[in-house]
């Protein structure tokens, strides 16, 4: 794992997007297509804006898999991650092969169908973030580090639900769904390359817990330290509590 630190989150997003675009072009050149996992949420705004503006990516040859989605939330809802990906990635690039998680369907059928598609070939690049509680996708602490299932149905803890409220996706905590579909930890780690984009001061405690502390299900994103080709992009605010020795050893 490598940590890259930036003064400004827009510069961070620009560099992360440039590296991600290079990885996509290389995968398409080598094998005729690229398979990606796409994250959502406010932390991904600048990154996806930068990525979708870059030239030279044959998006028709990109297959996209959805990282997570709320159970029971219609795609028309402002907080729907299906809607997020449609508006901020699919419509902007013209990706035609995508596997979205429909939160309104039976979640067990959704995870079975999407998991079968995911298992057919390796993922080239995964785009992820870290939650305020240290979650990776919707794998809240204590996360399941053992399951080999590609997707699982999870209960969302209060800290996770309060993050969604704080980001402005919902008007009240009671409106935030209590369950979600999430890609599993082991499935995320099967991606050949992982780009983890983590801006903002509200993520500083989680960043410290995940990268200064032990690798533990209680700090789910700490598992990224075991992946051989992960880049974590931090700005000065998200890295503010991190031990300088951690930054030095991971740079």
Q: What is the level 1 CATH name?
A: Alpha Beta
Integer tally of domains: 1
Determine the oligomeric state from the structure: single chain
The level of helicity is 25-40%
Q: Termini separation (Å)? A: 9 Å
Shape estimate: globular
Low-confidence stretches: none
Output the CATH topology.
Rossmann fold
Mean pLDDT: 96
**How are the strands of the largest sheet arranged?**
1-10-9-6-2-3-5
Alpha-beta classification: alpha/beta
Strand tally, please?
A: 10
| CATH architecture classification | 3-Layer(aba) Sandwich
Helix-strand pattern = EHEHEEHEHEEHEHEHEH
Radius of gyration: 17 Å
Structure characteristics:
251 residues, Rossmann fold, alpha/beta, globular
Q: How would you portray this structure in words?
A:
- This protein is α/β, with parallel strands linked by helices and 251 residues long.
- The protein has one domain: 3-Layer(aba) Sandwich (Rossmann fold), CATH 3.40.50.
- Helix content is 34%, strand content 19%.
- Strand 2, helix 2 and strand 3 (62-66) form a beta-alpha-beta unit.
- Helix 1 crosses helix 2 and helix 2 (45-53) packs parallel to helix 3 (81-93).
- The chain starts with a strand and ends with a helix.
């Amino acid at each position: 794992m490598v940590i890259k630190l930036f003064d400004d989150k827009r510069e961070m997003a620009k560099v992360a997007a440039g590296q991600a675009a290079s990885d996509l072009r290389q995968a398409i050149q080598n094998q005729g297509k690229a398979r990606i996992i796409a994250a959502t949420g406010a932390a991904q705004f600048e990154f996806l804006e930068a990525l979708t503006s870059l030239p030279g990516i044959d998006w028709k040859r990109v297959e996209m898999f959805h990282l997570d989605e709320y159970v029971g939330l219609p795609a028309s809802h402002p907080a729907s991650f299906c809607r997020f990906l449609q508006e901020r990635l699919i419509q902007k690039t013209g990706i035609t092969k995508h596997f979205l998680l429909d939160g309104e369907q039976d979640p067990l059928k959704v995870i079975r169908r999407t998991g079968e598609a995911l298992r057919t070939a390796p993922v080239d690049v995964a785009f992820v973030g870290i939650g305020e509680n240290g979650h990776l996708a919707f794998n809240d602490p204590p996360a399941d580090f053992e399951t080999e299932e590609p997707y699982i149905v999870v209960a969302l803890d209060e800290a996770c639900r309060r993050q969604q409220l704080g980001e402005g996706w919902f008007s009240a905590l009671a409106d935030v769904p209590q369950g979600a579909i999430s890609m599993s930890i082991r499935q995320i780690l099967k991606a050949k390359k992982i780009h983890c984009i983590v801006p903002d001061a509200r993520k500083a405690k989680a960043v410290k817990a995940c990268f200064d502390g032990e690798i533990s299900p209680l700090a789910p994103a700490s598992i990224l330290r075991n992946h051989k080709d992960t880049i974590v992009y931090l700005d000065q605010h998200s890295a503010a509590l991190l031990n300088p020795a951690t930054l030095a050893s991971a740079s």
